[in-house]
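Here is an idea for our session: we take a single protein and study its fold together. To get us started, please write out a protein record for me. Once you have written the record down, we can walk along the chain together.
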Amino acid sequence: MLFKIQRQAGPIQVLAFLITLVAISRLLFFNMGVTLPLYYGVMFIGMVLCFSGRNIRYNLYLLVFVYFAYMSILLNDIPSYFLPYDRLISFLIIVGLVSPLIAAEKLDNIRLLIFKNINRVFLVIVVLSFLGHFSRIYPGSDWSGFRGVTNHSMTLGPVAALAIFLSIDHVFKIDISRQERYRYLLLAIMSFITMLLAASRGAVLGAVLGLFVYFFKKYYLRLGKFLQITLAVIFIVVASSGFWSGFTTNLQRKNAVAQAKGDAAASRSDNWKFRVIEFKESPLYGIGFSHLKYGLIDKKSGIVEPASSWLAVFSMTGFLGGIAFTIFIFSILIKLILAKSSQNAVPILLALLVFFIVHWFFEGYILASGAFEFFYSWLLLGVIDIYHKTGKVDVL
């Protein structure tokens, strides 16, 4: 079953199931009837209901970041259509529910359930998108390219890349049957092809680096095995290039357009330059949370496109907020790198984190609380924090 909600499921399982449904409403192409007030309302109720128990802890780095985000609003004259306080509150609702900002027993339990639920959804999305494309029953293409059953090709790319990690991790489990191993290997292949069809260059780069890190961490005590697998993967990829290269048409088209403009990142480089300019204008405390001065700005809704999460953090919250955020992320990364275990969840969690650290250079959703990628990346950080406390996390 996709979601393991039994007849005797308790309130925490039911709440996790509900939050999962609300979260994936930001991911799928069809309207599930989840408005933004309903979305944030469910998340807020979930956070309040789970905010109980003993030993409630707060993450110092995130508290510092939130403080500087708040100060960046106070110290700037931000146009009202950006709704900075509203967006900071919505940011805190989601981050409070899924991230390490607040640690409590019930919050930890619901994060693990939501994480497993959504990871299973990723595999279903890949299968439906893949079958829809090749059967032509549902081609799943629009102005954004191949989006499958998601709402945008730039959403499907990361989903397919994450599905590759999840499938490969299952393939290399010790205690599964041969039939199950083959099923997940097939899922990995379908995920790889779907990622290529989606043509997200940031997702492809993040997937390549993430897989390298995954295998290195899994076999760092057996470098011979790591080299053997690495060479085998390279050989298989090269030998099968005649097969999968046919699915890179959209990637080649994007690269051709970029080369014609003389810039490999032509679709984003202007926005990257704008973020640097904004940072230089207010380097200490930034230009304000949820605020941009230049580039793609909808002055009716206040929706912006920063084009890079890392640059958005520094331009909006300045050096102070940017350093707090960077220390927070890399403290988590270093803990995973230094973790000695290679046979439990460390390799897959590290690979997923490396993927997002790379992907954040190309997409600007890390402060956009209404985006699904925002929800999942902060959820991942919350799950990694749970692993550091318990030493055990199941991803599927």
In short: The beta strands are 57-58, 102-103, 141-142, 145-146. Residues 57-82+117-390 form one domain. The radius of gyration is 21 Å. The first strand starts at residue 57 and ends at 58.
